[in-house]
Write a structure and sequence with these properties.
Blueprint lengths: L10 E6 L3 H10 L5 E7 L3 H10 L8 H5 L4 E4 L6 H10 L3 E5 L6 H14 L3 E4 L6 H4 L10 E7 L11 H17 L3 E9 L8 E8 L4 E7 L6 E8 L2 E6 L4 E8 L10 E8 L2 E9 L7 H15 L7 H24 L1
Parallel strand pairs: 1-2, 1-3, 3-4, 4-5, 6-9
Antiparallel strand pairs: 6-10, 7-8, 8-9, 10-11, 11-12, 12-14, 13-14
Helix pairs in contact: 4-5, 5-9, 7-9
The structure holds nicotinamide-adenine-dinucleotide (NAD).
Nicotinamide-adenine-dinucleotide binds next to helix 1.
Length: 337
């Protein structure tokens, strides 16, 4: 892999697609250490000019022109064109950060992963919740959930309805759950409904893993209330993660208070066989970080040092593979019904 560590020059990054999220990529790239925003491009040239002016950078006339001027790109176009744009960038020898879901179809993801591997280029997928301060707060804790319940509910907005809610929202939780369980899905049940768009707007899936863990996922983009919560149940602990706050609450049953933090509260005692154990509650400290800035910095670091990013193309593809199975199951049930 051609790394940039030999040179002191910053990593030149271009953003392809500067709609809602791409504009935020452009803004944040300016603050990533060792990187420089070299320009933006959008199929809507007026939009590209506007965002370029806001961030004092260049608006390129086309993707080819931008690729000639950068080392790496953020791809933040609608999902339906992720694969075509990524192929163009990888063919030009550019490292790729691609928003989630990696592509609209698993076969496309396989293709871009092979292209990146063959060319020795970094391919990172924007599964941003892995960098959420609440998820970060759990690093170093022993997580072996046996039951997971996730709810990701959003209000309706016409943006991003080019894909089903499973690919737009539920895929965040699929990725998190695959990272937490590190196990194969062995059983899958799902159902979903199209309410306001032509694709599935609300979905529920139940995944069983080889490890014995069961996950129950609900995602909706037609809710009145917003919610991004995950609850983990494991032996001797219940953990409640609120990605929107962000916050993490942990209830534990332990032998005693040794090793407990100052902030850990003793809630009571419980008889277990011949032993008396204690029930504790603690709110984990969450880092004061911006998840998107963190994932862009990790990508820049991977390009410069050859380290493996947390969310590789392969992780993005695995989440997509499970999402596709969920959608197939939803369609199968709809046909039977
Ligand atoms: P958006 O519609 O606001 O922006 C997309 C932009 O891409 C538009 O400006 C459009 O003109 C431009 N575009 C379309 N086709 C193009 C092409 N071929 N070449 C160049 N530009 C093109 O969409 P958005 O909400 O910003 O979402 C973009 C991507 O980011 C989607 O894949 C979405 O799933 C992802 N996303 C991720 C998160 C997250 O939590 N990580 C959140 C929102 C969106």
């Amino acid at each position: 892999m051609e790394h940039l560590e030999r040179s002191d020059s910053p990593l030149r990054v271009g953003v392809i697609g500067v709609g809602h999220l791409g504009a935020i990529h452009a803004k944040l790239w300016k603050g990533v250490a060792g990187a420089a925003l070299a320009g933006v491009v959008d199929s809507d040239p007026e939009r590209a000019k506007k965002i370029a002016a806001e961030h004092d950078t260049q608006a390129f006339a086309g993707i080819g022109e931008l690729l000639a001027a950068v080392d790496a790109v953020s791809i933040v176009t609608p999902t339906s064109v992720h694969a075509a744009v990524a192929e163009q960038a990888l063919q030009a020898g550019r490292h790729v950060f691609i928003e989630k879901p990696i592509t609209a179809r698993y076969a496309e993801a396989e293709r871009i992963i092979s292209m990146a591997d063959e060319a020795g280029l970094v391919l990172q997928v924007g599964h941003i919740e892995r960098f959420n301060p609440a998820f970060e707060a759990l690093r170093g804790h022993s997580l072996e959930p046996m039951f997971i319940e996730s709810h990701r509910l959003a209000q309706f907005r016409p943006r991003a309805t080019d894909v089903a809610v499973v690919l737009d929202l539920m895929i965040h939780d699929i990725d998190l759950i695959l990272a937490l369980t590190r196990s194969e899905v062995t059983e899958l049940r799902a159902s979903g409904v199209s309410v306001v768009s032509d694709t599935i707007d609300i979905a529920n899936a139940r995944l069983e893993f080889a490890s014995g863990c069961v996950a129950n996922l609900t995602a909706s983009r037609i809710s009145q209330r917003q919610m991004r919560k995950m609850r983990l149940f494991q032996r001797d602990a219940y953990i409640s993660i609120d990605f929107a706050q962000p916050s993490v609450e942990m209830f534990q049953i332990r032998d005693d208070m040794s090793g407990a933090h100052e902030s850990t509260m003793l809630l009571g005692a419980i008889e277990q066989g011949t032993k008396q154990r204690v029930i504790t509650f603690e709110k984990l400290p969450t880092p004061d970080t911006n998840a998107l800035a963190e994932e862009l910095a990790e990508f820049a670091n991977a390009v410069r040092t050859g380290s493996q990013p947390r969310v590789t193309g392969r992780s993005g593809a695995e989440a997509l593979r499970v999402a596709e199975e969920i959608m197939r199951e939803i369609e199968r049930r709809a046909v039977v019904a």
